[in-house]
Design brief:
heterodimer, A: about 375 residues, alpha/beta, Rossmann fold, Rna Polymerase Sigma Factor, Chain: A, 2 domains, eight-stranded mixed β-sheet, two-stranded parallel ribbon, B: about 200 residues, about 35% helix
């Protein structure tokens, strides 16, 4: 794993960045990956922002985890975001564990892993860090900024911080302010991690706690109907109930598997930091209670997308973004996609969704090329 | 493009801001955007149609005019267009109030229930009229509040809504409605198109 980690593309930012918490970081790494080719005019670049447990390897086989990238359905040659045509950039967020500055990095002051001595970061910090890379690549204007869930929050924050950075802005299955329900669910995950004696106040990444956090979170990414269809009450072994606490039901076994495989690729302390950043996200508050001000004078084309069975970031929360955009006369499209696959729909093969983003991006590109 | 849209697009001046309420597959929006450089937005309740519009690069919101018009600020559009849907709302009066609030001017078209074929259908067959413009049966029609051209004009007068232009369509032919020919037009037109404020 270590040799491959060394091959990760990184920009070392030598400027200093003042974080929202007040701490200043400098000479920090921003890990990224790109797909496709940046054209001469540098106008075909799309920034894809990843969600809580994603990373910069959005498509193809992830060289570190050896698994498919998180957005393989959407990004690649001939796919919805066509890398034959577009240059896709994806950055590991600040606080992450795939090479960007985060709790798994060495604290230069102590020469030990940061763990929980890493500063608390925000979505805005993540976005500012990514902007250094966009500048470094010499891109003045992105064709599009796109992302779902926490990726969508970054998309909104990008639009608010840098109103003219992109021709189009696509926030998917997200919210402008993290809801009480979502803060509660994140807290559940954090407590599971911190309750594990192997956590040692952040000195290590405990498997059990992180697995439970992942199991709980995973349920929230699905829908009742989806679970019913996929698992129902099906038993793991076709026989009868075992009258024990082993995984009798298929859904139990599935969740345990999800938890067990997650700990191999993710850092528990990163999980704490990133969920915290999501909880702190409140774009409305950044603009004194008026979300419309976040998008004032923004000339980008917005396309907000939600999913009918997503109860984590329900349509109504996505619509609040649309309402704020309309209130300031922004250029906005909105559609709710029918899907039984819950919040995870944006990561899965949902043809109507993929067609919508594909054609929206293509039409934006055609307009700027006219 | 159908004749009605030709008439509507002629009323709309170039480079103006337009909201098309119930924009369907975006045919009118596309024309306004590409041929008249209008800055166009749309609202459409049907998912598949809204998606179709977005795919064409049109800024369309999936939503319901009875609920979702509130979010648009006062006089934020030069024109608001409502084509043949006023009669399908639960509360057309409230929707019209919203349209007039949002738009500096509003273009409303209505299928004319006073059309002679409709009258004869009811008179001689004794059943609810089914015509080319009103193709549904009484039990599955989306139209809840049908009106005639005269009804609509009376309604505007009653509500102090200023009618800047009133036209009608008969077999693809366009003509103007005046005080004098109102009775006649109310019998022989299939569609009324009004520019109001």
């Amino acid at each position: 794993m270590n040799t491959e980690m060394k091959n990760i593309k990184k920009l070392i930012v030598n400027q200093s960045l003042e974080l929202d918490c007040g701490k200043i970081i400098k000479n920090f790494p921003v890990a990224y990956e790109t797909y496709g080719t940046l054209n001469k005019d540098k106008d075909n670049a799309i920034l894809a922002c990843h969600a809580l447990t994603g990373d910069q390897f959005c498509t193809n086989i992830n060289p570190i985890t050896k698994r498919e990238g998180w957005w393989t359905f959407a990004v690649g040659p001939g796919k919805a975001i066509d890398t034959n045509k577009y240059f896709v950039i994806c950055v590991n967020v600040l606080g992450g564990c795939m090479g960007s500055y985060g709790p798994r990095e060495i604290n230069p002051e102590t020469n030990k892993l940061f763990g929980t001595t890493f500063p608390v970061i925000t979505i805005r910090d993540m976005v500012r860090a990514q902007k250094y890379l966009i500048d470094h690549l010499g891109i003045k204007k992105l064709l599009s900024i796109v992302g779902g869930s926490m990726g969508g929050m970054q998309v909104l924050q990008f639009a608010a911080l840098y109103p003219n950075l992109a021709h189009s802005v696509i926030p998917i299955a997200c919210s402008a302010s993290h809801s009480a329900q979502n803060i509660a669910l994140n807290e559940l995950g954090r407590q599971a991690i911190m309750a594990d004696p192997n956590w040692k106040k952040g000195d290590s990444s405990p498997d059990k706690g992180l697995a439970v956090a992942r199991m709980a979170a995973h349920i929230t990414y699905l829908s009742k109907k989806g679970l019913e269809e996929k698992f129902g009450r099906k038993l793991q072994d076709k026989g009868s109930l075992k009258f024990s606490f082993d995984a009798d039901f298929q859904i139990e076994s599935y969740l345990r598997y999800q938890g067990a495989t997650f700990v191999d690729r993710f850092d528990a302390n990163s999980y704490l930091y990133i969920t915290r950043a999501m909880d702190y996200f409140d774009l409305q508050k950044q603009f004194k209670g008026n979300l419309s001000l976040a998008f004032k004078d923004n000339k980008s084309k917005f396309c907000v997308i939600s999913f009918s069975s997503d109860w984590l970031y329900p349509t109504i929360e996505n619509k609040e973004i649309v309402i704020a955009l309309n209130a300031c006369g922004a250029n906005v499209a909105f559609v709710e996609i029918n899907s039984d696959k819950g919040h995870d729909s944006f990561l899965l093969d949902v043809p109507e969704f993929l067609r919508t983003i594909s054609e929206f991006i293509n039409s934006t590109y055609n307009e700027i090329k006219k | 493009m159908k004749k009605e849209f030709e008439v509507i697009s002629k009323i709309i001046k170039n480079k103006k801001r337009v909201l098309d309420v119930g924009c369907g597959d975006g045919t009118l929006m596309e024309y306004l955007k590409n041929s008249q450089q209008n800055d166009v937005r749309g609202l459409e309740p049907q998912k598949n149609l809204a998606q179709k519009c977005i795919s064409k690069g049109l800024s369309v919101i999936e939503g319901d005019a009875e609920k979702d018009l509130i979010q648009f600020p006062k006089k934020s559009f030069d024109y608001v267009v409502l084509s043949q849907t006023l009669q399908a709302f639960f509360d057309p009066e409230k929707v019209l109030d919203q349209l007039l609030r949002i738009g500096k001017q509003t273009i409303v078209s209505i299928p004319n229930f006073g059309f002679w074929k409709v009258r004869l259908h009811l008179l001689f067959k004794g059943t609810m009229p089914v015509t080319k413009n009103l193709p549904n049966e009484w039990y599955n029609t989306p139209n809840l509040h049908m009106c005639t051209i005269k009804d609509f004009v009376n309604f505007c007068n009653k509500k102090n809504i200023k009618i800047d232009k009133s036209m009608c369509l008969t077999n693809e032919k366009i003509s103007e409605i005046t005080k004098k020919n109102m009775g006649y037009k109310n019998v022989f037109s299939q569609l009324g198109i009004f520019l109001i404020e």
